[in-house]
Amino acid sequence: KQEVTQIPAALSVPEGENLVLNCSFTDSAIYNLQWFRQDPGKGLTSLLLIQSSQREQTSGRLNASLDKSSGRSTLYIAASQPGDSATYLCAVTRTALIFGKGTTLSVSS
Amino acid sequence: EPEVTQTPSHQVTQMGQEVILRCVPISNHLYFYWYRQILGQKVEFLVSFYNNEISEKSEIFDDQFSVERPDGSNFTLKIRSTKLEDSAMYFCASSPLIGATNEKLFFGSGTQLSVL
Question: Which of B36, B104, B111, B113 to mutate to test the interface with A (most CBs of A within 10 A)?
């Protein structure tokens, strides 16, 4: 059974800092991996999708990597801003999305 | 930009009552999903739906749950007899394809269900 784990559970950084969020999964037979952002009381916004054949994807200040063989992904956020404060969820897809519990990020100004 | 819309945003019900949660997926999408998130826990898959039938369901999706696409635009989740433990945020999602490695899921903003 696929399990997705995210470390750390929470992270507080000052504005401008670069940071890395970690995601690990137990079964490497995935179609893709997605990173989502969730704001309190809101839905999920897809940030990046990495196909199983890819190693990384970039969007603006975000860069996500995927190492299928080791069952790991990282989300790198450059020059963090207070508006980046949210919960970041990692999810892997085979047929349905299997989510991690998320990392709650707080960026202080 | 097209989006998935869910109604109502909040629903309060008494234990044992039936509730119907409604979703309007993105118009050209073919696959529809329900997920839920109990407070403080992971987002969990409930069911996927394609071509007017369930394509996959989780252990959570027992006989108390049902889904329907009553017309060309709505997608509903019915809980027949609600229990306290059904209290959660329920998310609807849709995608154009399934099994394609580059297809994203688009999520609605959720319905917060509170069972008293």
Answer: B104
